[in-house]
Write a structure and sequence with these properties.
The complex is a heterodimer of chains A (579) and B (89). By secondary structure, chain A is of the alpha/beta class. Chain A is built from 25 helices and 16 strands. Chain A is 48% helix and 13% strand. The chains are: A alpha/beta (579), B alpha+beta (89).
Chain lengths: 579, 89
């Protein structure tokens, strides 16, 4: 029997999952790790040899096809390089030794050896020569694909046996890929409350624990796990009593979730009769269903950059138009706020020239609206697609990361050009389409007057506002504990922005993670916020809180919160507010 | 054993395609060929090892050839290293 032990991390998505661990490796996410018996070593080695042989034929076939056609000689030379790398003993022989020595599967042996080679390349000083590691990776991945097309051991995947994804870290692109799999929970070594793993786990409504440090190394493939996202804990190889206890808790949690479903059609109104807008944040057109299921009053944030991920090349105008129109018609006249591409920083996309270079400080670099204005063709294509979709529903445009008035002006010029071109082509669109701005840079809050005059609505992105105000990278585990939504500076900035917008009668919403956090709902209501946008999975929880809240009762406590500069006092006041 | 030292003049150093041609050419001879850069040695049979020598422009490559056709092999390889490695990959 294996030893039972517990791991602690940050529970970023609530709920309890019980299932078998499925490890995915850091470099090539699909690769599983499992042990084989001594008798299986020979078969595993043969499987590896066969895969190498197939790739060899594949490369030779490509080479023949190229020399018969009129492809430039460069391609043939590249194939030669790949063929030689494939036949290099460090790639074609060493993994077989690893299989025999470690008694592991061929995929894992190869991935490990690729890791060793890539590490050696990484030590090369000359940047150009160092980058040749990509050839090693490409050749290795060809073999991996062959191996995985014919897995040697078929893994049991019965209906009642759920699998839990265990990884070092997940990128936004990985995470989209995993939406198609049905994992019962996510567990990662890295990450924080606002990392992509967290956001997607919440969107899939599955428990997740991140920042579990060495989980990836301590857990073996196929081990039984309990992931408790509510209590930030993971239990590996639980004994029977613990397992029974958690099965019970799991049922109770599900029951509570079912009860919430009854609130779906109920208007979100406070006890004193104020209607609150509860909108959904979505990433892909498919998320629309979940938004409607949870009674969203509109789409407060459509993160359009996700259309870019997990694909080769850029999405065309027509593809974008179809995606936007699908959501616009699906919401049947309720507002759909499309945020223009927020690419850059943590949402990397290879193949975009502007992003291919490594920025010295990506969070402060060419991203979001800055990137769009630097790539006018890309931006115009998107604006045209959004405008065309505006004919089919109530569409609004939201510009991310504005800091200066000049950025608003330039965006308006671009929008004017897009409108003009559509008019000439007699393509219908909503000429009065509202244009709003994301308030996520402290400068925008402090100089909010100009934003209120020039824009039709505002939306506060609290994740970035906190990151930029406190100078804390939310993805950096070493400083993530300093990321504090209740920092006095944050409460002051929120009060300032919401107060000014309400006074100017310009609609303002919060669309960051904070909007979906139950502990923050009353604070935001007390600051005067009437429009929230959050992950669909939080909508009913927040609605329940709204239904139990009387605005008049919040005023005094929130006034004191606005002035508090003592963290202990702030917490005490928050407790009072949420009591 | 035949030995010759050659300076790398290609601005990209011994790039992947250059390494491939060295490996290819060496395989036509029966002699064993080694490349030494900065005290590190790689067999010319082994493209990854040659690539990892990371011979950048200005580095000196020491060719060591030993075997029945070592004279012919060295002169062919030296010629390749000196002028044949102009293209990048």
């Amino acid at each position: 029997m294996s030893v039972s032990f517990a791991l602690h991390g940050i529970g970023v998505s609530g709920g309890i999952a019980i299932g078998r661990a499925q490890l995915v490796s850091h470099a090539t996410l699909e690769v599983a790790h499992y042990s084989i018996s001594a008798r299986q070593v020979q078969d595993e080695v043969a499987r590896f040899d066969a895969a190498v042989g197939e790739v060899q034929k594949e490369l030779e076939g490509l080479h023949a096809a190229m020399t018969s056609g009129d492809m430039p000689g460069e391609f043939g030379a590249f194939l030669d390089v790949h063929w030689m790398i494939l036949n290099d003993t460090t790639l074609s022989e060493t993994p077989k030794k690893i299989i025999a020595e470690q008694r592991c599967n061929a995929e894992w042996a190869l991935t490990q050896q690729m890791g060793v080679l890539v590490e050696q390349f990484d030590q090369i000083e000359d940047a150009y020569l160092r980058e040749r590691k990509s050839d090693v990776i490409q050749v290795g991945e060809r073999v991996l694909k062959r191996l995985m097309g014919r897995p040697g051991v078929v893994r049991a995947a019965s209906a009642e046996e759920q699998t839990i994804l265990v990884a070092h870290d997940l990128s936004p692109a990985d995470v989209i890929q995993f939406k198609q799999h049905h994992f019962a929970a996510f567990l990662t070594d890295l990450g924080g409350a606002t990392s992509h793993t967290a956001i997607v786990a919440r969107s899939l409504n599955v428990p997740a624990v991140v920042a579990a440090h060495n989980a990836r190394q301590l857990i073996r493939d196929g081990e039984m796990l309990i992931v408790d996202g509510n209590h930030h804990v993971v239990i590996v190889n639980p004994d029977r009593a613990v397992l029974a206890e958690y099965r019970l808790r799991q049922e109770e949690f599900e029951l509570a979730r079912q009860k919430l479903k009854r609130l779906r059609g109920k208007p979100a109104q406070t006890i004193d009769g104020t209607l609150i807008g509860l909108n959904a944040n979505i990433e892909l057109p498919e998320d629309l269903e979940q938004a409607l299921d949870n009674g969203a009053s509109g789409i407060g944030l459509f993160r359009s950059e996700f259309l870019f991920l997990n694909r080769i090349g850029l999405p065309t105008e027509d593809e974008q138009f179809e995606a936007y129109r699908h959501v616009a018609t699906g919401m049947g006249g309720r507002p759909v706020t499309i945020r223009t591409f927020d690419l850059g920083a943590d949402k990397h996309k290879e193949g975009l020239d502007g992003l291919a270079r490594v920025a010295p400080n990506p969070a402060l670099g060419l991203r979001a609206v800055r990137f769009c204005l630097a790539e006018p063709r890309l931006f115009l294509t998107q604006l045209r697609a959004i405008l065309r979709a505006s004919h089919y529903g109530k569409v609004r445009i939201l510009i991310p990361m504005l800091a200066s008035v000049s950025e608003i002006d330039q965006t308006m010029v671009m929008l004017g050009r897009a409108k003009e071109a559509l008019r000439e082509q007699r393509v219908p669109f909503d000429a009065e389409i509202p244009v709003g701005g994301m308030i996520e840079v402290p400068a925008a809050v402090l100089a909010i007057g100009a934003f209120l005059r020039k824009l039709d609505f505002l939306s506060i992105g609290t994740n970035d506002l906190i990151q930029y105000t406190l100078a804390v990278d939310r993805a950096d585990d070493a400083v993530s504990h300093l990321y504090d939504p209740l920092h006095p500076a944050i409460i002051k900035l929120l009060a300032l922005a919401i107060g000014a917008a309400n006074k100017a009668k310009v609609p303002i919403a919060v669309c960051g993670e904070m909007a979906g956090e139950l502990a923050m709902t009353r604070l935001l209501l007390g600051l005067g916020l009437r429009d929230f946008s959050m992950h669909p999975s939080h909508l009913l929880n927040v609605k329940q809180r709204v239904l139990q809240t009387e605005l008049a009762q919040l005023v005094a406590t929130v006034e004191r919160l606005k002035r508090s500069e003592d963290p202990a006092r702030t917490l005490a006041l928050m407790d009072k507010l949420n009591a | 054993m035949q030995v010759r030292e050659i300076a790398v003049t290609n601005p990209h150093g011994l790039h992947a395609r250059a390494c491939a041609r060295i490996v290819q050419l060496s395989s036509h001879f029966r002699s064993s060929v080694s490349l030494v850069v900065g005290g590190r040695r790689a067999s010319a049979r082994n493209i990854l090892a040659v690539m990892m020598l990371a011979a950048a422009v200005g580095a000196t490559v020491r060719l060591e050839v030993e075997g029945p056709d070592e004279v012919a092999a060295l002169s062919a390889l030296a010629e390749l290293l000196q002028d044949g490695l102009s293209s990048r990959a």
